[in-house]
């Protein structure tokens, strides 16, 4: 029996997923994992203070909440303790005036984005409406949100080169405003992979497009304010009838528990609650109660400001220093400007460079990175970008500093070898 069209689409292995399988297969050989330098991982760093805090909060919740949280079904909107904590925190923090009707808790923010994609995009009476990424590159996981082919597209960025080895992407608002197929807009801020954060003027313009098109703007705050603050945020989350803000505890140290939440206008949030009820019933409740404790006691905010944010800021500074010292001076390599973040996004501005060729070359040196093409939506080539999407790659800052340092040494070796071979 064959798969349906949507089944065929969703059963495909993405390019990035195939690389993750490659990593799992390669490092599963005898003694293999210890010999590999994995700079591709999206896991947050294992920070001892963060782990200890979550372990203590989980023990408290397990002792006091287990029966009501784990032995009974709960409301699809979310555990009341967490929903109430979210409402109180965001009203106090931003003065929003939201109620429980504006909140939904889901099994991870990616699932909430998937729900939004199912609700707002796809075949419609007036044509197919797409997920539109206002700027690529962006989180590669967004490309798997659509259950139909061709359901996502992106607006190529403008590229601004700094006087040093930096560069920065900029929105092409003229191109975005010309789109007439927008079902919803979606972006991460701060961005995965670049760490770029939208400023207030850019946010206002994006909201303006959403209002004129009468579509939702989904902003994924997985790395930003108010937590986990892995990367600096240029502007605070905004409340608007056309904005759905998504947050997650994954990068705050709980990726395995799959707890995320969305805040937005009630008519959109209630539709998302119904979708969640029809598909997964609700998110894991014990973890929700743990999250509620972290939020109401202020320990989540303390972890973000006192531990997580300084950790990644220092790690980014270390990585920048190592890149400057170790990558070839006579090569046009550039690093996307960022104030922190979990990743470094590099551009090798040479015709001989290809991201997949680097990936294969580094495998011979037992190093994993992520090729840049996976963060761009097809087609990779545009008149402005040319081959830019294939000239970038991402390295993670979650690994130990010794792993990052030795990994950059081997990246430099691979680049010299690729240039010589060309």
TrEMBL record:
For the Aminotransferase class I/classII large domain, which residue ranges apply?
36-407
Superkingdom, natural source: Bacteria
Q: Which InterPro entries match?
A: Aminotransferase_I/II_large, Class-I_PLP-dep_aminotransf, PyrdxlP-dep_Trfase, PyrdxlP-dep_Trfase_major
Q: Which cofactor does it need?
A: pyridoxal 5'-phosphate
Key words of the record? Aminotransferase, Pyridoxal phosphate, Transferase
Q: Report the Pfam families cross-referenced here.
A: Aminotran_1_2
Asked whether the UniProt record includes Transferase among its keywords, one would answer yes
- CDD domains referenced in this protein's UniProt entry, alphabetically: AAT_like
Question: What PANTHER family has UniProt attached to this entry?
Answer: AMINOTRANSFERASE, VALINE--PYRUVATE AMINOTRANSFERASE
User: What protein name is recorded for this chain?
Assistant: Valine--pyruvate transaminase
Organism expressing this protein natively: Streptomyces gobitricini
């Amino acid at each position: 029996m064959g798969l349906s069209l949507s089944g065929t689409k969703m059963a495909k292995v993405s390019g990035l997923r195939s690389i993750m399988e490659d990593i799992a297969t390669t490092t599963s050989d005898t003694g293999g994992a210890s010999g590999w330098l994995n700079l591709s991982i999206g896991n947050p760093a294992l920070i001892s203070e963060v782990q200890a805090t979550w372990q203590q909060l989980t023990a408290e919740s397990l002792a006091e909440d287990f029966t009501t949280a784990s032995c009974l079904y709960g409301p699809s909107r979310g555990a009341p303790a967490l929903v109430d904590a979210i409402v109180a925190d965001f009203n106090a923090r931003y003065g929003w005036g939201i109620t429980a009707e504006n909140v939904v808790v889901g099994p991870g923010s990616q699932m909430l984005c998937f729900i939004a994609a199912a609700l707002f995009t796809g075949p419609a009476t007036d044509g197919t409406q797409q997920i539109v990424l206002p700027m690529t590159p962006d989180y590669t996981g967004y490309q798997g949100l659509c259950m139909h082919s061709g359901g996502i597209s992106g607006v190529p960025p403008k590229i601004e080169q700094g006087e040093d080895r930096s560069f920065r992407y900029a929105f092409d608002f003229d191109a975005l405003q010309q789109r007439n197929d927008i079902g919803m807009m979606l972006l991460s801020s701060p961005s995965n992979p670049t760490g770029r954060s939208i400023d207030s003027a850019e946010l206002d313009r994006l909201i303006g497009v959403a209002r004129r098109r009468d579509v939702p703007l989904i902003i994924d705050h997985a790395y930003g304010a108010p937590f986990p603050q892995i990367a600096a945020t240029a502007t605070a989350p905004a409340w608007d009838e056309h904005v759905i803000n998504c947050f997650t505890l994954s990068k705050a140290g709980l990726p395995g528990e799959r707890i995320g939440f969305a805040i937005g206008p009630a008519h959109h949030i209630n539709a998302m609650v119904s979708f969640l009820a029809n598909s997964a019933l609700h998110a894991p409740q014990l973890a929700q109660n743990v999250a509620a404790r972290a939020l109401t006691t202020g320990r989540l905010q303390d972890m973000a400001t006192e531990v997580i944010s300084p950790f990644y800021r220092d790690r980014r500074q270390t990585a920048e220093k190592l890149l400057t010292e170790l990558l070839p001076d006579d090569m046009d390599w550039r690093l996307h400007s960022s104030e922190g973040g979990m990743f470094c996004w590099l551009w090798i501005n040479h015709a001989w460079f290809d991201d997949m060729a680097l990936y294969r070359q580094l495998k011979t040196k037992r190093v994993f990175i992520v090729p840049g093409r996976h963060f761009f939506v097809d087609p990779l080539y545009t008149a402005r970008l040319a081959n830019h999407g294939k000239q970038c790659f991402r390295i993670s800052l979650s690994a130990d500093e010794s792993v990052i340092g030795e990994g950059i040494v081997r990246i430099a070796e691979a680049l010299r070898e690729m240039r010589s071979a060309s």
